[in-house]
Amino acid sequence: MTSINRERRQAMRGAIATGAGIASGRAFAQTTQAQFSPLAEGQSGLRALALYEGLEHPWSFCFLPDRTILLTERPGRMRILRVQGQNAQVTAAIQGLPAVHAEGQGGLLDVITSADFARDQTIFFSLAQATDRGARTAIFRAQLQGLGLGRVQMIFAQKQDPAGRHHFGCRLVIGPDGYLYASLGERFSQAKQAQTLDNHFGKVIRIGLDGSIPKDNPFVGRGDALGEIYSYGHRNPQGLALHPQHQSLWMHEHGPQGGDELNIISAGRNYGWPVITYGREYVTNFRIGEGTSRADVVAPIHYWIPSIAPSGLCFVSRSSIDHLRGGVLIGSLKERCLAFLRLQADRVIAEQRLLSSLNARVRDVRESPGGEIYIMTDESRGAILRLTL
């Protein structure tokens, strides 16, 4: 059972993000530190059925109306997976992708469909893009035409493009307001820039589906800020999802040595990195920043010490697996398992580690429209698996 750290302040959150964006959750959310109960497959009653193995470092997937799965592989391939009972077949690589900078943590990253995909066949995807100076995170939209892409258009690219192979982010969500939200990493070398508004490092951005800047974004009109920015003070966020009931935007991000965070994102707010954090330096183990709380910084609703390296974020709302319904599933790259958070309103009241016997880096987890839960492992021979009882 996760215990509440009573010395940590409650994070103030408005019921609606004023002037811009989406619902931000309940007015008060309490911060909890991870304390978990590891459960073996037999104890949890869960099994993971491998549908397909042999993907090269897969990173993300989404569901298409014909019950197929569109997926990405970090080296720069997009494929379609056709599930047939307890097996699946994967297509050849989809043609027409833009060039991908597949070095280090860079590559082809997230993919989602438009809200009206059945009509417009539109997808959105993020990737690391090489430049003359270094690399940056970019977001594209395109039409999926069989095993090819048409009308490919870059709708966003980070303004700055430093050298380096780390912390590109980047998860995508289309909000109930019809805008695209994306989580951007601070590229590791640019951590201090997460606290300033003249760059895209360590930010959540909010843009139109054509890349335009919404007029009601929180920093529009400020000469010292980029208009796309929705929130700031993030490190390397790789989990982003909408709460199924009140549609608030939840996000987790990697800490350094300790300090992974789960946050509810509100317009215009500062989430602390690298000034306010639970994380420590990798080599020296020294504390980072000036502390773990400050009045103008939003506290996480949950944090992990030591780190689990979270990736992928899924609210379970339709599953027939009763004890998971109403909770949150998060992949763990470091602990090589699936983390399950039980919620009470917007408070984490328990955490369990599931499927540790997989011994694989869990990169993504999603619930299908029919309520089935799929997970993706990030390995040289990565897999798509389905949870069963």
Structural features, described:
This protein is mostly beta strands. The chain has a single domain (11-388), classed as TolB, C-terminal domain (Neuraminidase, 6 Propeller). It contains two helices and 28 strands. The strands form seven sheets. The chain has a five-stranded mixed β-sheet with strand order 3-21-20-19-18, with no helix packed on it. A five-stranded mixed β-sheet has the order 4-25-24-23-22, with no helix packed on it. It has a four-stranded antiparallel β-sheet with strand order 5-28-27-26, with no helix packed on it. The chain starts with 10 loop residues before the first strand and ends with a strand. The model is unreliable at 1-19 (pLDDT under 50).
N-to-C order of helices and strands = EEEEHEEEEEEHEEEEEEEEEEEEEEEEEE
Which percent band covers the strand fraction? 35-45%
| Ends distance | 23 Å
Q: Tell me the CATH superfamily.
A: TolB, C-terminal domain
Number of domains: 1
How would you classify the helix and strand content by structural class?
A: mainly beta
As for the CATH topology, it is Neuraminidase
Supply the number of helical segments.
2
Shape designation:
globular
User: According to CATH, what is the class?
Assistant: Mainly Beta
Helix content: under 10%
Give a quick account of the main beta sheet: strands, pairing sense, barrel closure.
Answer: 5 strands, mixed
Low-confidence stretches: 1-19
